[in-house]
Amino acid sequence: MLVVVTHLWSEGVISSVFRFSRIGGLGVDIFFIISGFIMCYSIRDRISPGDSVQFLKKRIYRIYPIYLLVLIPFLIQYLAQSSSANDLVDPMLIIGNLLLLPSFFDGANYRMLVGPAWTLTYELFFYVLFAGAMVLSASKNRAIYVVMSSIVLMVALVNFFGLKGARLQWSNFQYMVGDTLMLNFVIGSICYFIWKKYYRPIFSTWMAMAAVTALTMIALLMGKFGFPRIVSLGLPAGAIVLIFLFAEFEMKRLIKPLLFIGSASYSIYLVHAVVAHWKYLVIGRGAHENDLTGILLTITAIVLGCAFYVVVEKPISVIVHRRAKDLRRPVNSLEVR
Questions:
Q1: What pTM did the predictor assign?
Q2: For a designed S-S bond to 219, which of 80, 133, 236, 279 qualifies (C-beta 3.0 to 4.6 A apart)?
């Protein structure tokens, strides 16, 4: 939702005071750190050779079906605009968007048609690295250590030898391999080890909320004074994730809506890109963006994202997971049972 606010509520007095134009960056760092934590949390302690394949299949089932549905209107618009302007359609751009691949050839015009989907290219790269680490490991901890050291070494060497490419339009592989954003997956893995070893409820709900609010303001201030992103956003994001991991949500009425928002977060993330791209349909073509339009657009994106989750993502996820289980089931399953 921090990303939603940045993309839809970046104009106005309130937005200016609270630096909403930058707050989405913190959201991305939190997103990657949570991903690093969840990947470590979700795999088994003992790893067999086939686990890496199953790991990647689950990640594909999680990301692609919903993403491809949201991509459709953007793809149609791209093809229509190329046709009307007599421009050549870039087949690599289409293939890359369908597969969520970054550019591998410094393509200046290459981009994700669904703007925020550039983060998913980072996610998928991390998944591939994690799957590779699982192939080389017999235990969860070893796999985590391998992927952590691989990411740190990769980012360090690319920057040390000056091999990092230009960011271009946020989807360049040569930039990605040297981007310190990749280190957030390492921070998430560290959060997992800390949580696993020391977990006990420390913070109450309100203590956690207050601490996270303070850390958010500190992160935005550090960014204003030119601190590197890994320091100004990555470390505060890691602290925010740890605070919530060690928090006890004693307010039972709060847990259910929070869990629902968490479940719907992927739909919200994707659907808000549709709202951002066609926001004039909500506020009118001639509207001047301000705090009021920002609030309206943000609420619209969150409500539509939640609706998309209930009506589309949840049923599709049930179907996909059921089919995945059927594929893994032995032919003579009754005898096995």
A1: 0.93
A2: 236
What's the CA gap between 92 and 104, in Å, rounded? 10
Helix, coil or strand: residue 204: strand
Beta-bridge mates of residue 2: none
Where does residue 330 rank: exposed (0-12), middle (13-18), buried (19+ CB within 10 A)?
A: exposed
Spatial distance between the Cα atoms of 195 and 202, rounded to a whole number of angstroms: 12
Q: Which amino acid is at 122?
A: Y
Percentage helix, strand, coil, to 5, in the chain? 75, 0, 25
Sign of dihedral through CA atoms 133, 137, 140, 144? Answer: negative
Query: Would you write out the chain's pLDDT as a tens digit for each of its 337 residues?
Result: 999 999 999 999 999 998 899 999 999 999 999 999 999 999 999 998 789 999 999 999 999 999 999 999 999 999 999 988 888 899 999 999 999 999 998 788 899 999 999 999 999 999 999 999 999 999 999 999 999 999 999 999 999 999 999 999 999 999 999 999 999 999 999 999 999 999 999 999 889 999 999 999 999 999 888 899 999 999 999 999 999 999 988 777 888 898 999 999 999 999 999 999 999 989 988 889 999 999 999 999 999 999 999 999 999 988 887 776 665 554 443 333 3
Measure the CA–CA gap between 123 and 109, rounded to whole angstroms.
22
Q: How far is CA 255 from CA 29, 182, 250, 252, 318, in A?
A: 23, 31, 8, 5, 23
CB under 8 Å to 314, separation ≥6 — which residues?
Answer: 263
Cβ–Cβ under 8 Å, residues 12 and 162: no
- DSSP label at residue 248: E
Q: CA distances (Å), 337 to each of 326, 327, 330, 331, in order?
A: 15, 16, 10, 11
Q: Tokens 């050779």 sit at which residue?
A: 49
Owner of token pair 């991903």: 35
Distance of CA 144 to the CA centre of its chain: 19
